[in-house]
């Protein structure tokens, strides 16, 4: 795995007088059909424009991409039919604005055409020290924590957020 080019944008909020922090997010989606199925073509066609919009969005820091690919849709660390999206943002507001106030929202409105409905949590957020790029294993562990224990300073959602001070991100996993 190779990260996309990390932005040189300023770090996000600080914890007291401590380190600057960023918000990491992972979301997973279970495909209804393989990506090369014609029923998935509209989704595949949106990948480049939506990822380009993310890369250019205010507050974007980094996103996971597969070696030699423009995205991470070929990576299947959560199952053969599950795609992952892992990214880092300067603030929760920056991620929210991209997810719900940009062209990304149009894709989200159509998600039931392409993805199964998840019974368990499919999105997890957590604070990381600025400059830390989370691994897929770290992200999946945070999602498992959210699923097993509900929202906490370690693993939360937009609906149940925690501030950087509550999360104490100065201890990022190795």
Structure overview:
- The radius of gyration is 16 Å and the shape is globular.
- A five-stranded antiparallel β-sheet has the order 1-3-4-2-5, sandwiched between helices.
- It has 174 residues and is of the alpha+beta class.
- Helices cover 30% and strands 19% of the residues.
- The N terminus is likely disordered.
Please describe the structure with a list of short key phrases separated by commas or semicolons.
alpha+beta; 174 residues; 5-stranded antiparallel beta sheet
Percent range of helical residues: 25-40%
Strand order of the largest sheet: 1-3-4-2-5
Distance between the termini: 17 Å
Order of helices and strands: EEHEEHHHEHH
Based on CA atoms alone, the radius of gyration comes out at 16 Å
- List the total number of helices: 6
Indicate the structural class: alpha+beta
Give start-end ranges of low-pLDDT stretches: 1-11
| Strand residue content | 15-25%
* Overall shape: globular
Mean pLDDT: 87
- Count the strands? 5
The description of the largest β-sheet is: 5 strands, antiparallel
Lay out the secondary structure:
Elements: E1 2-3, E2 21-30, H1 41-56, E3 60-65, E4 82-89, H2 92-100, H3 104-109, H4 111-114, E5 123-129, H5 136-149, H6 164-167
Antiparallel strand pairs: 1-3, 2-4, 2-5, 3-4
């Amino acid at each position: 795995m190779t990260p996309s080019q990390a932005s040189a944008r300023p770090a996000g909020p600080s914890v007291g007088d401590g380190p600057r922090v960023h918000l990491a997010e992972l979301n997973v989606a279970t495909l209804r059909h393989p990506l090369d199925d014609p029923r998935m073509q509209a989704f595949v066609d949106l990948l480049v424009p939506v990822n380009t919009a993310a890369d250019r969005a205010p507050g974007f820091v980094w996103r996971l991409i597969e070696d030699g690919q423009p995205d991470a849709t070929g990576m299947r660390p959560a199952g053969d039919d599950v795609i992952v999206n892992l990214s880092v943002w300067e603030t929760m507001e920056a991620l929210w604005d991209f997810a719900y106030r940009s062209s990304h929202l149009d894709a989200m409105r159509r998600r039931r055409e392409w993805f199964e409905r998840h019974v368990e949590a499919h999105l997890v957020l957590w604070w990381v020290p600025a400059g830390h790029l989370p691994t897929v294993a770290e992200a999946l562990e945070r999602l498992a924590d959210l699923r097993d224990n509900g929202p906490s300073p370690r693993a939360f959602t937009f609906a149940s957020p925690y501030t950087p001070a509550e999360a104490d991100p100065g201890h990022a996993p190795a």
